[in-house]
Design goal:
Largest sheet: 6 strands, antiparallel, barrel
Low-confidence stretches: 1-44, 206-231
Structural class: alpha+beta
Helix content: 25-40%
Number of helices: 8
Number of domains: 4
Mean pLDDT: 79
Number of strands: 23
Strand content: 25-35%
Strand order of the largest sheet: 4-13-16-15-14-17
C-alpha cells in the first residue's frame, strides 16, 4: 500500500503537466472529442499499450522515425576556450627605425588587406632612395658607354675590310666594348640591390599601388591615401582583412623593427583549444568533425574540424590539447570565450540507431514507443550504446526498420504513468 502511495504521488506531477499540455492542445477541439484512452493494466506495473485518437495525435505533435543502420560514431565531450587563429594573427612591426607621423586606426577597427594603419617617417628610406637614384644614373651612364664602344667597334670592323685600319686596333676596340658591357652589368646589379633594399622598407602593397591609376576623378591623392587605396611610401599597412587587436605606439613616437606597433587578427576563423582526457585521446584524429557551444548562444551550434592533437600529456590534468578550427563569419565567437566541444569520432562500424528524442525511461528501463495500428502505441525496452549527433545506438531490443515515435514520446510516457494513478471515483 505504501508503495502505491509513493507511485501515485510521483506520477501526479507528470499527470498534471500532461493535463496542462493536453488542455492547451485540445482547446480548439469540439466538446465531443474522444479523450486520451489508455488500455487497462493487466499484470505489469504499466500497461503495454496506449490508445490515442487521431485528433490527439495531431495536437500532441507526434513525429515518427525509423530505427536505421548507420555508421557508428562516438562523441568525446570536452571543454576549452576560444582563441586566435595564429595563422591569421599578425604582429606588425615597422621595417626600419623611424618616427610615427600619423595613426589612422584604433583598437577594434575593421581593416581591409593593404589598408594604411600609420605613416612612418622612415629614417633609412631616404638614404636608400638616394642610393637607388645614384645607381640609376650609373646604369644610364654605363649604357651610354656601351653604345659608344659598340659604335666604335662597328666602324673599326668596316675600316678593316677596306684596309683603312689594322686588325689589332679592332681587337682593342672589341675589348673596350666587352669591358663596357661588364661595367653595365655591375651597375645593374648594384641597382637591383638598392631596389630590393628599398622594397624591404616600403609597405607590403607599395609596388602594386605605385603602378595603379585613379579611375574615379573624385578620388584625389589625399582621399585615396586616407581611404587606404594608395599608401604613402612610409605607410604601415594591414597584411590581410581583419580587426585591429592592439595599438602599441603613439603619434610622434620613435619606433624600430623590434617594436610591435599593431596586432591585426582575422576572426573569420577561430581556434578552440580543448583539453581531451587521455582515456579518450585514442578516439580522436585530425579531421574529425567538431560541434562547439558557448553560453552566449545556448541554442546555436558552431561546426568545425580537429586540426591538431598535441603529442604531450599534461601530468597535472591527464589531458592533451586538441585544436579545432571553427569558421566564425559573423564574429559571434569572441576570444577567451569558454566553450563546450563535442568531437565526433567514427568508430569504424555500422549499428542500429534511433533519434535520441525517441528514448524514454519507464519502469527503470529505457524504452521506445512503437506505433502498431493507427492510434495504438506499445512500448519496448531497449539496450543503448553510444550517443552522437542526436542519434543513440540500439544494441538490443529493436530491429532495423522498426517505426518509433520521436518528437512527442514524452507525452506518451506521461499518459502511461497517468494510467497508474488510482481512480478515486
Amino acid at each position: 500500500m505504501a508503495r502505491g502511495i509513493v507511485l501515485a504521488t510521483g506520477a501526479a506531477g507528470i499527470a498534471a503537466a500532461l493535463g496542462f499540455a493536453l488542455g492547451h492542445a485540445t482547446a480548439t477541439v469540439a466538446a465531443s472529442s474522444a479523450p486520451l484512452v489508455v488500455a487497462a493494466a493487466e499484470g505489469p506495473l504499466f500497461p503495454s499499450t496506449i490508445t490515442v485518437s487521431d485528433q490527439e495525435v495531431s495536437h500532441l505533435q507526434l513525429r515518427f522515425g525509423k530505427a536505421q543502420v548507420a555508421p557508428l560514431v562516438r562523441t568525446v565531450s570536452t571543454t576549452g576556450t576560444v582563441g586566435y587563429d595564429q595563422l591569421r594573427h599578425a604582429r606588425i612591426t615597422p621595417p626600419a627605425r623611424g618616427r610615427i607621423e600619423t595613426l589612422d586606426v584604433t583598437v577594434g577597427d575593421q581593416v581591409a588587406a593593404g589598408q594604411r594603419l600609420a605613416v612612418l617617417d622612415n629614417f633609412e628610406l631616404s638614404a636608400v632612395r638616394s642610393q637607388v637614384s645614384s645607381a640609376n644614373a650609373a646604369v644610364t651612364q654605363a649604357q651610354a658607354q656601351v653604345a659608344t664602344a659598340n659604335a666604335a667597334l662597328n666602324r673599326a670592323e668596316n675600316l678593316v675590310r677596306t684596309g683603312g685600319m689594322a686588325q689589332s686596333e679592332v681587337e682593342v676596340r672589341r675589348a673596350a666594348a666587352a669591358g663596357m658591357e661588364a661595367e653595365l652589368r655591375t651597375r645593374q646589379a648594384e641597382l637591383r640591390q638598392y631596389e630590393e633594399e628599398e622594397a624591404r622598407l616600403m609597405p607590403v602593397n607599395a609596388t602594386s599601388t605605385k603602378a595603379s591609376t585613379v579611375t574615379d576623378p573624385s578620388e584625389t591623392a589625399a582621399s585615396i591615401a586616407t581611404n587606404g587605396h594608395l599608401d604613402s611610401p612610409g605607410a604601415i599597412v594591414a597584411p590581410f582583412k581583419g580587426i585591429v587587436d592592439s595599438v602599441a605606439a603613439t603619434q610622434g613616437e620613435i619606433v624600430g623593427p623590434s617594436t610591435r606597433v599593431f596586432t591585426v587578427a582575422d576572426l573569420s576563423t577561430v581556434w578552440v583549444n580543448s583539453d581531451v582526457p587521455e582515456s579518450d585521446l585514442g578516439a580522436v584524429v585530425v579531421g574529425d568533425a567538431v560541434k562547439v557551444q558557448v553560453s552566449a548562444y545556448p541554442d546555436r551550434i558552431f561546426a568545425g574540424r580537429v586540426t591538431y592533437i598535441s603529442d604531450r600529456i599534461d601530468p597535472s590534468t591527464g589531458t592533451a590539447k586538441v585544436r579545432c578550427a571553427v569558421p566564425n563569419p559573423d564574429g559571434a565567437l569572441r576570444i577567451n570565450m569558454f566553450a563546450r566541444t563535442g568531437i565526433i569520432s567514427p568508430v569504424g562500424r555500422d549499428a542500429v540507431q534511433v533519434p535520441s528524442s525517441a528514448l524514454q525511461d519507464v519502469n527503470s528501463q529505457t524504452v521506445v514507443f512503437i506505433p502498431t495500428t493507427p492510434g495504438h502505441f506499445t512500448w519496448h525496452a531497449v539496450q543503448t550504446g553510444l550517443v552522437a549527433n542526436g542519434q543513440t545506438q540500439i544494441s538490443g531490443g529493436l530491429a532495423a526498420g522498426t517505426a518509433v515515435v520521436t518528437d512527442g514520446s514524452y507525452w506518451l510516457k506521461a499518459a502511461l504513468m497517468q494510467s497508474t494513478i488510482p481512480d478515486e471515483g
